[in-house]
């Protein structure tokens, strides 16, 4: 029987550890094939912590090992850890460094140091602490030429302000003069200068320096793939709890440490954003560069010195946290002036438009992190939109502009949204879909802003802006639905996918509207009747053949109804009984209202009545009931449809019942599945040994009607009342994730509300 890869790796590691202590001439077998098989499995599956520890501590770094240098090098190059690297593994590597008969060869030491750089992003927190505490040991090994480049790279990664001391600066300067300006030493010295620029002067840091790039990006990508695969296997339960891993992000960077970009290829460098540096720091002062944990940040929050280049706040999350907790008008003014200079330079033609687009990435991250949109950004994005082609970095632009304060919709539209629409919209439905998604983000930010403020004036302005925004987007929704339907029915279209995406985006938008209504803010409730969706959108979604889409629509309508009820209950002179009145065929929720408000609420009542007529009352397209709109279908069309239905094989099915829960093309499968479930339960109960229940003599062929259930019971089939069947079907739909249908029915149909109240 073949072993699992992890088990085979463990066996091979044990065999190799034993064979490595025996001289080659005394071995009974050659270890070459063992090394080849082990490295192949490690490359494909990664190494578990115990196997990694054994290879590093008992083979690569242990004294008295008789493996050849080629085999050792092959092992190091295939050390792919499947989980975070433990501190004892790092300690074993540090302990093997240096010169001596019991030490590994210098090329192997260099490979191990290079390996530390490769796996630095997956080192555990204790392993990072071991590296930091071993700084003096590593620094004292810089005189070894064979490992100096790799050692300098490790030191660059772990250097913090506490490690930079005058005697170390002098040691590097002396060693650099002695060996002739080694690029690695110059690069390390430049990192030291970042912390004490006033100490390191002269020509010491001039000349060619090591860029300290990642040694092997392909190796790291493969390592991440191995860890991701392990994580997926663990989640699927195929790898056992003990062997699973916790997939780590960039472990050395935890949000409470200054972001150091030593490669010069990060976003900050690309957009000319300076890194965080605090010049003229004293021994007793505390700088951001010294902070490496949340505890240290909180402990020194009030005494941390601001860095010299405050514009670094755009790219450094730790500085962002500091300025949010210790706001400084002067600091933000300096950032504004810097951005204004960039925009002015670009507008005058002195600067490149590409530079602004590069800066956009940093600005986007700043806005997303701080949830703020400073006024200076209006000029910045105005300059970008003036030359934008509607495609480049579209996501960054839309996500950033969603945070624009919406205190007055008309002003914001003229200043920002109008130009954005002109650049974004084209003749494709996908551009309208992007714009609708953008306005959904805007509405979501408005909801968050309203939750965060108790200022009545701000809330009032926000409510007016929300009303204007929704009314503006209603037109976009209608255009998007029309264009998407045309696209999905076009003979050149591969599928109707765009249409479905459009309708889902419409639902997303109106769900955000109902989320704002749920806040129960008086200013919003006062204009709730102006926020209801247009009829075309409601009825297009109502007749869609996706059960998930119609369920979400009905949930939205139920939430709108709750908002209208809350608004009516807060009107002056509104009695408690009238406030609690429910919308059904006898009690529309419409008084006391102005004529315009009455028309809007009657329109919404029509939505509810039409949906209930279709699903529950088998009176589809009826316009005789109070407020019923007949789904806005012309009477002549209804007559033609009735004739068509009567011409089908099932002549007993009238058009009015064709969209009920049992017959609807969207919900008929769930309806008959529920009946089959009831019949199966009845058959199982009848088959029990002590059961007195008679087995069913026949099953219902479907679809279910009230008359069919009576005939079924009389002929030996399932006995269930029409009301019990439909109530149970609503519960079944809720269990299937289609709770919006039951939510609307229980909030609209009076008999269902009374039945639920009595059962509860």
From TrEMBL:
**Where in or outside the cell?**
Chromosome, Centromere; Nucleus
Q: Which UniProt keywords apply?
A: Centromere, Chromosome, Nucleus
A Pfam family: CENP-I
Name the lineage: Eukaryota, Fungi, Dikarya, Ascomycota, Pezizomycotina
Protein name from the UniProt record: Centromere protein I
Source domain of life: Eukaryota
KW Ribosomal protein (keyword) present:
no
Q: Please tell me the species this chain comes from.
A: Sporothrix eucalyptigena
The similarity comment for this entry is: Belongs to the CENP-I/CTF3 family.
User: What InterPro entries does the database record attribute to this sequence?
Assistant: CENP-I (IPR012485)
Keyword Nucleus (UniProt):
yes
């Amino acid at each position: 029987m073949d072993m699992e890869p992890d088990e085979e790796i463990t066996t091979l590691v044990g065999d190799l550890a034993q064979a490595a202590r025996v001289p080659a001439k005394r071995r009974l077998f050659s270890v070459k094939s063992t090394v080849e098989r082990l490295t192949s499995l490690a490359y494909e599956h990664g190494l578990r912590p115990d196997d990694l520890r054994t290879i590093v501590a008992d083979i690569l770094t242990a004294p008295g090992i008789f493996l050849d240098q080629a085999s050792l090098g092959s092992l190091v190059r295939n050390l792919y850890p499947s989980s975070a690297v433990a501190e004892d593994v790092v300690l074993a590597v540090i302990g093997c460094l240096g010169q001596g008969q019991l030490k590994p060869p210098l090329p192997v030491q260099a490979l191990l140091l290079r390996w530390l750089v490769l796996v630095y992003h997956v080192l555990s927190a204790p392993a990072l602490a071991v590296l930091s505490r071993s700084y003096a040991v590593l620094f004292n090994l810089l005189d070894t030429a064979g490992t100096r480049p790799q050692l300098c790279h490790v030191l660059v990664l772990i250097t913090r302000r506490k490690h930079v001391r005058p005697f170390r600066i002098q040691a590097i300067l002396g060693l650099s003069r002695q060996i002739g300006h080694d690029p690695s030493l110059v690069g390390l010295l430049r990192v030291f200068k970042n912390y004490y620029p006033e100490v390191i002067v002269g020509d010491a840091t001039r000349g060619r320096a090591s860029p300290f790039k990642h040694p092997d990006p392909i190796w790291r990508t493969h390592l991440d793939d191995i860890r991701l695969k392990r994580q997926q296997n663990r989640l699927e339960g195929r790898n056992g709890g003990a062997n699973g891993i916790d997939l780590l992000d960039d472990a050395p960077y935890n949000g409470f440490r200054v972001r150091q970009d030593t490669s010069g290829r990060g976003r900050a460098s690309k957009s000319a954003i300076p890194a965080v540096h605090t010049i003229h720091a004293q021994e007793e002062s505390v700088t951001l560069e010294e902070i490496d944990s949340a505890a240290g940040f909180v402990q020194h929050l009030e005494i941390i010195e601001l860095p010299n280049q405050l514009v670094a706040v755009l790219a450094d999350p730790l500085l962002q946290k500091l300025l949010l907790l210790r706001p400084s008008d002067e600091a933000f003014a300096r950032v504004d002036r810097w951005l204004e200079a960039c925009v002015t330079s670009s507008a005058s033609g002195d600067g490149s438009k590409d530079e602004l687009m590069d800066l956009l990435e940093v600005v986007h991250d700043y806005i997303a992190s701080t949830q703020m949109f400073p006024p200076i950004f209006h000029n910045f994005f105005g300059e970008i939109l003036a030359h934008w082609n509607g495609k480049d970095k579209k996501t960054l632009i839309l996500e950033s502009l969603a945070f624009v304060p919406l205190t007055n919709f008309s002003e914001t539209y003229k200043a920002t949204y109008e130009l954005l629409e002109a650049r974004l919209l084209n003749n494709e439905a996908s551009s309208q879909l992007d714009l609708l998604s953008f306005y959904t983000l805007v509405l979501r930010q408005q909801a968050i802003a309203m939750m965060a403020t108790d200022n009545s004036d701000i809330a009032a302005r926000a409510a007016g802006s929300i009303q204007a925004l929704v009314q503006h987007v209603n037109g976009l929704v209608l255009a998007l639905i029309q264009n998407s339907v045309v696209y999905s029915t076009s003979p050149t279209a591969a599928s109707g996918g765009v249409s479905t995406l459009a309708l889902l985006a419409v639902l997303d938008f109106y769900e955000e509207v109902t989320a704002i209504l749920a806040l129960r803010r008086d200013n919003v409730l006062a204009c709730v009747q102006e926020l209801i969706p247009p009829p075309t959108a409601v009825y297009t979604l109502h007749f869609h053949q996706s059960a998930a889409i119609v369920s979400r629509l009905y949930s939205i309508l139920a939430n709108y109804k709750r908002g209208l009820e809350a608004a009516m209950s807060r009107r002056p002179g509104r009695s408690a009984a009238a406030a609690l009145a429910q919308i059904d065929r006898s009690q529309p929720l419409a008084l006391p209202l102005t004529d315009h408000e009455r028309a809007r609420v009657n329109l919404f009542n029509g939505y509810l009545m039409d949906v209930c007529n279709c699903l529950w009352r088998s009176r589809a397209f009826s316009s005789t009931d109070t407020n019923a709109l007949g789904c806005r279908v012309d009477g002549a069309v209804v007559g033609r449809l009735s004739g068509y239905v009567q011409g089908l094989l099932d002549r007993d099915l009238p058009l009015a019942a064709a969209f009920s829960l049992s017959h609807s093309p969207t919900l008929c499968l769930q309806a008959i599945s529920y009946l089959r479930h009831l019949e199966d339960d009845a058959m199982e109960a009848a088959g029990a040994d002590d059961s007195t229940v008679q087995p069913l003599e026949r099953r219902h062929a479907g679809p279910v009607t009230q008359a069919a259930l009576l005939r079924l019971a009389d002929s030996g089939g399932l006995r269930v009342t029409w009301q019990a069947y439909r109530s149970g079907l609503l519960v079944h739909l809720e269990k299937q994730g289609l709770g919006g249908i039951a939510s609307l029915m229980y909030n609209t149909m009076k008999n269902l509300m009374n039945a639920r109240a009595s059962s509860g």
